[in-house]
């Protein structure tokens, strides 16, 4: 939802910063108006602020009438200042692990797509922009390009927004018909938890990219790995391979899965991308990062792992509302999280995380390529 320009003057300072006033590419079809109570967008749940949209419902047809049996929130991680701090940190992890804002394997292609041109301006879409860090960084790296960041919740901006960047409130599950053929680069990072049908999303995003344009994806797996980079099994307290951190991640994985979230996206993305007829030149990369600086010898990896430990400590605290809503007792959740945080702080478990990156290019039609 782009903020309409005629509402910008009375929407309040937090919302004023959400739009640079640019109207190209076309704004979202779903507009936010300042007269709407903020509680329609955000809600307080178990001491954290979460988005108030992204519903998934079960329907049935009874006597010719469609009835909703169950309506649940698909994305259940926070959308407050604490979470945005974590997302800023996570942005640093992604950037340091890749050595830039996008994978080295496609760096030259991305730069070529976003190079200045005589007619029009290059355009970038950041789906699930979170704190807006990636969108604003790209706007600064490519000041001649238009950058649009969209998310379920408002972006908390603590610094001035580049003039070539704007943010919109929207649900990616609603589709992108208003953005067909509008962007040269489309980026989506850690969005699987809020998507009910990722194949449909990929097809939609492929349509937003101009011929020859590129899709970029990144996500961290919920599966943790042991010090030999082997999947850590689910174990019970007292077992040799038991980890409280794994217990929290495992419970969170199943809680998200039960709501319909596409939490297996990181491992399946290359296969899914290959099923979209309009895409080709599909590539992927996986990076293992220690969860905490228990492995010594590489200063860059040690810095990454320390950042990741801090991210993990914050992330597990943010999992609490989801676990409580999934039916776990508060005492149980508090025990799991406190023990997992103690485990991470003391580096008593040598764990790896795995981060997945994937990309694809939209095909250029033969008739267009021949011109």
From TrEMBL:
Domain of life: Eukaryota
Protein name (record): Methyltransferase domain-containing protein
Ranges for region Disordered: 1-20
InterPro entries: SAM-dependent_MTases_sf (IPR029063)
Annotated organism of origin: Sphaerobolus stellatus (strain SS14)
One Pfam family recorded for the sequence: Methyltransf_23
Gene Ontology MF terms in the entry: methyltransferase activity
């Amino acid at each position: 939802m782009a903020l309409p320009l005629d509402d910008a003057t009375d929407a309040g300072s937090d919302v004023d910063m959400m739009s640079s006033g640019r109207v190209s590419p076309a704004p979202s079809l779903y507009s936010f108006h300042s007269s709407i109570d903020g509680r329609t967008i955000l809600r307080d749940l178990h001491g954290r602020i979460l988005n108030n949209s992204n519903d998934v419902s079960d329907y049935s047809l009874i006597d010719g009438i469609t009835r909703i049996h169950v309506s649940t929130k698909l994305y259940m991680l926070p959308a407050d200042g604490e979470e945005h701090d974590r997302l800023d940190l996570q942005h640093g992890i992604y950037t340091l692990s890749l050595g830039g804002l996008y994978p080295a394997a496609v760096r030259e292609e991305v730069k070529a797509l976003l190079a200045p041109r005589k007619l029009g301006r290059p355009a970038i879409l950041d789906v699930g922009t979170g704190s807006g860090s990636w969108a604003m960084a790209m706007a600064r790296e490519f000041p001649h390009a238009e950058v649009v960041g969209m998310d379920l919740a408002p972006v908390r901006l603590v610094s001035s927004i580049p003039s070539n960047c704007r943010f919109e409130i929207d649900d990616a599950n609603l589709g992108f018909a208003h953005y067909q053929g509008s962007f040269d680069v489309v980026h989506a990072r850690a969005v699987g938890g809020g998507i009910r049908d990722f194949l449909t999303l990929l097809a939609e995003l492929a349509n937003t990219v101009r011929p020859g344009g590129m899709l970029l994806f990144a996500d961290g797996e919920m599966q943790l790995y042991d010090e030999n980079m082997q999947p850590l099994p689910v174990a019970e307290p007292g077992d040799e391979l038991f980890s409280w951190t794994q217990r929290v991640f495992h419970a969170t994985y199943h809680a998200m899965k039960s709501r319909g979230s596409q939490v297996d996206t990181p491992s399946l993305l290359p296969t899914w991308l290959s099923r979209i007829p309009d895409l080709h030149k599909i590539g992927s990369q996986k990076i293992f990062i220690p969860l905490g600086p228990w492995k010594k010898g590489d200063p860059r990896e040690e810095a990454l792992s320390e950042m990741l430990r801090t991210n993990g400590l914050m992330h597990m605290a943010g999992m609490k509302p989801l676990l409580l809503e999934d039916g776990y007792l508060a005492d149980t959740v508090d025990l799991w999280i406190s023990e997992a945080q103690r485990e991470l702080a003391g580096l008593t478990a040598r764990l790896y995380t795995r981060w997945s990156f994937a990309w694809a290019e939209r095909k250029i039609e033969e008739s267009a390529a021949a011109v």
